[in-house]
Amino acid sequence: MAQDTTVPKLNFEYWLDKAIEWGQATSLESQKDVYLHLPQLQEFLHQLYETIKHLGSTVAIQQFPLIGQLLGRLCWNPFVIGYDESQKTLMWCLCCLYSSEPQNAVELKANSWIRSLLCHLLCSSEWESNEAEISTFISALGYTSADYYCHLVKNMVISLVTELRENQFNGLKIQESTSASRVNAVSIFCVPLITLPDLTPLLEALLLYHGGSSKEILSSEFLESVNEAFLKKKISLPESAVFSLWLRHLPSLEKATLHLLDQLFSIQLNSLEEVAHVIKDSLLPQAARHPAIFRTVNEIFKNALMETDGTSEVMTIIQVFTQLFLQAHQNEYKQHKFPLKAYFLYHHQPLVRALIRHPFELPTAYWSQHLKHISDMVKALVEDTNISSLTGLFEIWFLVACFGEWLDIAAEQLLKAVVEPDAVLWLLAFYYCPKNENQQRTQTMVEAEAVYNHLMMLFSHSDLSLKDLEGAIHRVTGIEQRCNQRLATHLLTNFLLFSPCGHKFAQECIYHITKTTDTSKEVYNLLIRTAYRFNHSGEKSQRTVKLLYELLQKLTLKV
């Protein structure tokens, strides 16, 4: 049975007969025969792979109709897959039969069969039932059963990672078609095995691999599967690998951004610290240090804003994301840092520089002056005759809105400092009502000025009563235009927070306003932004901080 070991080259019938004869090598006689033929079998499998790797799955199956039956039987023989590089070569051969774009039910079924075989080859749990039959072989190697398969997987991964890295560094010496084909095959092979912890180094090596081809060489199914597993936290990858994934596969970046928005909408966030933690944990602000990723994420945010009619939740998320991106950009090593213009290509650069300046980089005494400077630039851009389209107007508005901390400070400065109210009110009016069709923004300014003047008249009252506030509350709740009402509510909320006596009536007044005007979410988001700023600034008014958290606790039940 074991005498004839001279095998004709690529003699399928011979090796198929042997595979059938061996089965899973349960008898001592068949085990001896397998052992005698292992070197020749490995050479045959290597020649087979070299023959089919350029053919494509359809041609390979046409040329070798029995290949599936042969490989399938060999994959279930523990002595075959345990010998030297036979397991690796079997995997390569299976990958060559995998249809990257299956055209019919037969090819879909074949892909499913190949995936199941690949899972079998690397998942030790599926072999536990065979432990008795192969324990002698494993013991002879000096391993326990669990250790054997663990080492098998690790050695396979190390081998593939080494090959990829050698290709990367010596790419000019390798035929591009061969290199691309091999890398694509590896990525396909990984698809059903993505979540195996020992496979992580190989995933990283693939994602960081860049061949000479201008086309993407990694399987789209692989890229999608890695992204899906990462978003569901089934795998952990180094930041560099995640960033490379999103740079080379736009659908994955889009899915990651939408996943973040869904995640933030689906949970009750009680502070901006929680919002910041979730956003930072997504790695998107860090990845946005690459301008292409930043601009893509921003476009998705813009669409989310338009689809939700500019809700305060989406706007708060965008503002926190922008702050975290700027922090990541500032922490970037100088030699790797892109200029800020690369992120804001078509915007007025002096305005970009003014908005990017963090408020706490300036003495508070200069805030009013800085806000006037911002307002003047925005107004000049908006009133420029060249900015006639709604698209151009939206881009200016979105840029200002991304740096909403300055807008919140603007509303506070109206009450707390000596400012030019016209410039600051205009900036707030533009934010809440960017379009000026039928003099809409002009009407916003009129109503905002009326509310502001009324509040300033009450600001210095040392014996302020609830009756004194009724006029201001009635003025706010009586406004018909929603954007105007949101601005007026913003001003009144700040008055209740920061005026000497307003805090005494804050809970009752805010409850009445939010109930009457349905602005609970807007007020809630304003309060968590204010609380966040207080926690990260030198302002330590215990009275205001305590009031903020009392209000947030009550509003949490309503939003």
TrEMBL record:
Pfam families per record: Fanconi_C
GO BP term (any one): interstrand cross-link repair
Q: Which domain of life is it from?
A: Eukaryota
Which cellular component appears as one GO term in the record? Fanconi anaemia nuclear complex
Which protein is depicted? FANCC protein
The protein's organism comes out as Sylvia atricapilla
Which gene underlies this protein?
Answer: Fancc
